[in-house]
Amino acid sequence: MSKFAGTWKFVSTENLEELLRAIGMNEDFIAKSRDDKPTMIITVSDNNIHMKTEGQAGTFDENLTFDVCSEHKLPTGETYQMTISKESDTRMKAVFTGTATPGHTIYEICGNELHMTSTAGSVTGKSIFVKA
């Protein structure tokens, strides 16, 4: 999991607005996200991962324990539950429930890129970050 650790800079996204609508984000947040180029800082220890994302849409700071369901807040204030699991040294899967449409995100290291592919119902979006 050490390959995930570090600072990641945003490169591109596909289908983000549709994905945000599917999970129940409001139009104000979606508008802020349109031109956002967030930075993600990830630290990993034995059974924990800390992911902090900072951008114009806000700061999201999540401390997670692998394979333990925990409660989190959307920027709208609504709560949801998420469980993140290790699938390999270069792949993790987060499953979320309690949002307008439950779904999952695959985090995958591809060379010096971090690919995040999120699915909520029938909507899929992808973001790519590069290691800073």
UniProtKB/TrEMBL annotation:
InterPro entries attached to this UniProt entry: Calycin (IPR012674), Fatty_acid-bd (IPR000463), Lipocln_cytosolic_FA-bd_dom (IPR000566)
Keyword Lyase appears in the UniProt entry: no
Keyword annotations: Lipid-binding
Gene Ontology molecular function: lipid binding
Gene3D superfamilies (alphabetical): 2.40.128.20
Keyword Membrane among record annotations: no
Residues of the Lipocalin/cytosolic fatty-acid binding domain: 5-118
Identification of the protein by name: Lipocalin/cytosolic fatty-acid binding domain-containing protein
Native source species: Calicophoron daubneyi (Rumen fluke)
